[in-house]
Amino acid sequence: MHFYVLTLFPDMILHALEESIIGRAKQKGLLTVEAVNIRDYTHDRHQKTDDYPYGGGAGMVMQAQPIYDAYRSIVQRIGSRPRTVYLTPQGSVFSQSDAKELAQEAHLILLCGHYEGVDERVLEEIVTDYISIGDYVLTGGELPAMVLVDAISRMVPGVLTNADSGESESLEGSLLEYPQYTRPYEWNGKKAPDVLLSGDHAKIESWRREQSIRRTKRNRPDLLKKADLTIKEKAVYGVHDGMKGAETGASPEAENKN
Ligand code: SAM
Questions:
Q1: pLDDT digit string (tens) for 28-49?
Q2: In a domain? residue 214
Q3: Which three-class secondary structure state does DSSP give residue 50?
Q4: 174 and 31 Cβ atoms separated by less than 8 Å
Q5: CA–centroid distance, residue 154 to ligand 1 (Å)
């Protein structure tokens, strides 16, 4: 899969994606991440890429022309108009299912805004998806773009090896993941749950499932509505269709007792 990040700060993108799983996937040729410097496409002799907002108000607005030309340079090279995401707090909030869906694309352009944002006319011309990474405002789109590259890349076949497999991960099937433990058996006076050392795979699976449901009920009751639970599980954990988050929240103490 090929990512093209349209940015005023290409070094931010490139340095952050050299390490660990994403860095390895790039070396294996499963991914490419190209940071396209919008400033390289300005016609301004001082390399300016922003200007004052029409109508007044604070801050600056990124101009349409350099962004459009940077976009067109990619389109011309690859011979098609790929899906193009504008990272914006005004977009729909990014989810694991979006990551899976976007991982089907061969090419993806990510546009990072700055200052007060981007001239609306170029957004209308090139953007197919408006995505936010959460209900808060950041100074620029680079961190959100990196969040998308990371989450989407993990869904590209071959990127996760067995060692970092995401099969039973949080949000798969709308449940959070169960708690994890590793050696030593006892740390700081706390023992790892004995069931995990029992070698009984059925019991381990059932303990993990129970923990996942309890944890989701406690931390993210909103997700439980969508979770794939059996009728028995719904009865045991007090989950009923149409319930509201607040009705289901169990206290952490309640979870720990179980
Ligand atoms: N004036 C804009 C507004 O109210 O929608 C916010 C601009 S913000 C200071 C600058 C840039 O950061 C945005 O253009 C966007 O690319 C990025 N950004 C900020 N918060 C974001 C978020 N929650 N998700 C995705 N991108 C975000």
A1: 999 999 999 999 999 999 999 9
A2: yes
A3: strand
A4: no
A5: 24
